[in-house]
Structure formats: C-alpha cells, structure tokens
Amino acid sequence: KNEAGVGDQVLVVETRPLSKDKRYALKKVLRRASGV
Question: For the chain, what percentages of helix, strand and coil (3-state, to nearest 5) are there?
Fold first, then answer.
C-alpha cells in the first residue's frame, strides 16, 4: 500500500507469519518525515 515513507515513525504489530520472513504489519503512521 506504500502508506509510509523513509524517515516516517510508524507503529508495527506482530501478526501471524505472512511469509518466511514477514511477521509484522504496519498499524499506523505516527509522524511523517519532515523535509523529504
């Protein structure tokens, strides 16, 4: 979905395994990066 960008502070939550290495999902963007 590309909801977050480089430098953004985000909240991630642990989920069921989505693939071999992916076990976390983006919950929400806490603060956007400034000046990017």
Answer: 0, 40, 60
